[in-house]
Amino acid sequence: MKFARRHCLRETEKFTVSLSESPTVRFYVPEWDDNVDAHYDFEHDEHSKLNPSERDLQYIWDIFDPSTLPIDGVLISREQVGESQAKHDRFVEHGVYEPGSHLDVPDWLPTISDCGAWGYKSLPFPPYDNQEMLEFYDDLNVSVGVTVDHLVLGSGEAGRLYLDERAFTNSFTEDDLPDALTDTFDVMVAAWPDEWPDYVEEEAPAVYETDSVDPFDPSLFEGTAETVQERLSDDPRAVYRKDDTQFRYELTLQNAAEMHEIYEANDYSFRLMAAVQGWNPASYAQATKKTLQQGYQYLGIGGVAGSPTGVVQDIMAAIGNIVKEHEREYTTRIDTHVFGFAKTDAFDTAGRSGMTSFDSASMLRSAWTGGKNYHLTSGKRYDALRVRFPQNGEDLSTSIEKALRAQELLHALRAFDDNESIAEAIHAWYQTAEQAIEELDSYLWEHRWDDAYNASRLRDIKEHFRSDYAHGRELKGSFSTRFRRRLAKLLRADDPEDPVDRAEYETLIENAKAVLQDFPRMLAQVEQQENDSDRCGTFEQVWLLVKDYATWIGDEGHLDAYEELLQAEPWRECTCTLCEEYGIDIAIFRGNNRNRRRGFHNKRRFYDQFEDDLPKVLVVTPATAQMSGPPTIESHLAKHQSAFWQVVHDLPVAEIGTVSAQGFHEWWEPTPPTVSLDPDQMAASLADTATRYQEIFVYIPDHPLRDQVHDAIDGEDCQLRQYTDPANLRQAVLDRLGYEADFLPDHPIQTSLPGL
Ligand SMILES: [Zn+2]
To answer: Ligand 1 being an ion, which residues bring their Cβ within 5 A of it?
Structure first.
């Protein structure tokens, strides 16, 4: 598979149109500090700067260019942002699109922000206030804000009892709660916030009003579960609900209603999405109905992350049917996001149900969790080869040996990837390592009292050492971080007035030299093989080292998988920018800078399939001078271009809107105050940004597109089709998607989420 856009049909005219960069079904990535050191030194396994705050960090949007970036947006959860006060303050002060946030999302990439309900699922109430949440979204300057929801958690228990973790002590812990209680109720223990939002005052005054937490007296929990529940009924450290599922469901709807009202009364720049919660397709369908009645045109399905594909498919189908009914009754359009779910085998249902976006971090995180970390396609996955760093707590000699073995193997693997002599690579590495340790003593003797080594912070000493000593980086790579840190400590302690005994340096160096004596380990055997076969960089040669290393480090159980990986060399097949730049290093399991880059690669591979299954289709019509009149593009289309709007408003997968000289206007957007229809500018703006669409269907009732549009787009990688009859356009879009006229999936009402 290749990742460039794929196009098969070419029956009408072809030219690339650059409209909004947003594709039709969008794929969002949750923001979880997924960044790498832009200038990481792979050869010595060194960060560009020892001080993390000085590093130039790259996010996935800094690595791929807009036309190959395998995401369509970023999901930013407040729970995640709040994990670091500094990060929270940066985001709120600057907004996520400004460099000051450090996230620095490109202007064209949409952002959704939500509360992150999973993070507070064990609290009796969401810890956020509706109004305050809207202001948070406004401060972050995100494109979309989501209403405050509470995960609808199921349980077979008689009721749910929430307890404030802060009231437990070392002598009375959660584990000391009697079985009579925990067997009867679903007990949820979590540290409650110091301050609850105002609405809690009404719901649970005792909980709201407390300003200190007294420890639980164990006698509170004696007796039957019912007695305990009674005893705790006005306790500020406990909340009990008989039907908590219903409470959470109602609260989510209530918040959506209230937030919609506040939103309408204000002038926020983001779009508001209603979170929809439920416990089975019927309850989700019911919640969808109510949310649509509240006036929402953007829904977010929550609570399905981690659920089996079939269950989520049923929920999407149920919601999709309700939404379609509503769209057709009111000749309108609704966007729907699915939170925390993106399974390739559910794409067909998702498309037919009219889902418009997803988010998932699983492809990224699978790069370093579990096995099969390097993905080509969903069916072709390989184990990344583990080359381990020394661990904390190991003695110095073990750390040095682990570092040496790792470097020897890494040099061999790179030579293998480059089809070069592995023996020469090992030999060259060994000589550098040897030189680094041989010349160390004389360097230290000459420089140990340099001013820079007077610094009090060890990091400053290490930073100076690695740039001043010619082999400072090599010492870290081949002899371990620990070895270099020991040196730095000696340098810091060393003072002309109170010199460190030279023997201390010598002991350290001798220790390293002693370990180095066993290296290079496999040179002779590899050389022999190279001579015998008269070939370089073969699997058989590199396998000598891989087998030796994996067996020594305790990973011999992975050898079969490693053989499969090295025989297939899948990184050669991948044309993503990371595999092209780093080659085999992307398939090596070792630290954040390799693992997270592999995660970005996995995302790119996943996105290939996503684009195949849910093609990027755009449906547009040229703007008219009347467009600046009505408040929204939708109202303009309904009023002035109704022949078009009537037949396209409910089309699944496709993105719908108008085109003016200012660019693309999505159906839900407010209309611009003025409309420019200058044909040259229109052509230029069209050609500027359409790299993320595969096919564009244009309804042109009067006359064909002008030549300059064709000229501007000619040679680009996108197909454009023109229609004078909107019904033909509709049919062509459905044909392109492979959907029948009644494309909706069946509407099930049976399946429940697990645990309910
Ligand atoms: Zn790749």
So the answer is: 574, 576, 579, 601
